[in-house]
Structures are given as structure tokens and as C-alpha cells.
Amino acid sequence: MPKSFKTQNAHSASLTLKGSAPLAQNSSPTQPAPLKPLDGLRSIAVEQIENLPTLRPNDELLIQHFIECGNKVEAFKLTYPDKAKRWKPESIRSNAYHAFAKPKIRATLKALTLAGMFGTPCLLEDHISELRRIGTSAFDKGEFGTARLCEVNIGTVSRLYVDTAVSPHERPRTPEQMVALLAPGNKAGQSEILEAIRGARATPVALDVVELTGAEEVDG
Q1: Best exposed site among 17, 19, 52, 75 by fewest CB in 10 Å?
Q2: pTM over 0.90
Q3: Residue range(s) defining the domain that contains residue 148
Q4: Domain ends where: 95, 118, 141?
Q5: Which residues lie closer than 8 Å to 209 by C-beta, 6 or more apart?
Q6: What is the pLDDT of residues 28-48, one digit of tens each?
Q7: Is 184 in the same domain as 206?
Q8: For residue 188, what pLDDT is reported?
Q9: What segments bear the compositional bias annotation Polar residues (predicted)?
Q10: Do 205 and 199 contact (CB within 8 A), yes or no?
Q11: What's the domain count of the chain?
């Protein structure tokens, strides 16, 4: 990996520590003061960023695209546009997940994720709160597509959703079927998604799957 990539990420990680509690220092040459949990995680995050594994240019580009779009398949298609044009969707999906299973790529993403979680003063609760504010404002203006997208993003950052391919003939017919596909096997998550959607409405009404998904009703 080019030195600039490591330096840039290490510098970014170090910047996020400004304004937060300093890392604990040794109280004496022989008796080091114990690190607080968050301080310890921050120090690990910085250390891992500074020691990122060396990646091939395409692997580095793959990670950068994944950070930007948040989808492994789309990141693979952006990294390998020629293959994306020639290959079938099944082949693209298979090769994308194989690429992200490489040990060096997994290690890099783990380090970047750790730095993002513990090397920045921005909390997940703050991010969700901002999404809810934007969603409520959009709903009040009648921008239902934007409001729906905010709720989906809240579910995504809360890890309630998983990537699930739904073919046209399998399109869910009820809201319950839809959230079952979004959060399979997670009853609590399914209930939270439904409540989040209902909570965004000024007056509770029956949920309509066509409205929620933005799909057009297909006869037959």
C-alpha cells in the first residue's frame, strides 16, 4: 500500500483524538496507570491504523469504494468495471464476497472500523438522532421518499438490516413479510423497524408495502 494511504489514515485517526480525553500516561516508571476502556480502544485503533497491511492497488481501491458506497457488490463493480459489464450478477456477487474475504482486506476493514468507532467523538446515537431529524423534516414537507430512506439508513447503521435479494415474483405482500426479509430471524429487529416507520407518521395508519418499498403493484 502506498505510504500516503497509511499516513493519511493514521493522520485522520490522530485528528479524531483531539478534544477527547488524553490517553492515560504512566504514573511512575515501574507502575503504569491502568488505561480506561475507551482510552485503551483508542490507542489500539491508532496503532492498527499505523500498521495497516500492504495492499495491492486494486484491493486498496476496492476498500475505498466500499467505504464510499457501503456495499460490497457495488464496490467490486466500481473497482472492476470491465468485469461488471461482462459477468453475470451471480458471478459478480460471488467474486465480490470472495475478494472481501481476503485476510489483508478483512484486517484493513477491521482496523478502519475500529478507528471509526473509537477514534472519533461522533457517537452512533448522534448519527441516528441526526437521521431522525432529517427524516422528520422531510416527512413534514411531504418528501416521503427521503423520510423512508432515513428510516432505512437508521436500520442499516443499527445493524437491523442485511442485504437480501428479492426477485419480482417474491415481492412481499405485507409489511410483516417485508421486514422479515430485511431482518430475518430477528423478531425484535422486525418490530423495531415497523415501529420506526409508524413513529415517523403524524397519525398512525395502516402500513402499505407498495408505498414503503416504492414499487408499483403488479397484477397476477
Answers
A1: 19
A2: no
A3: 124-213
A4: 118
A5: 172, 173, 174, 175, 177, 178
A6: 445 555 544 555 555 665 666
A7: yes
A8: 75
A9: 1-30
A10: no
A11: 2
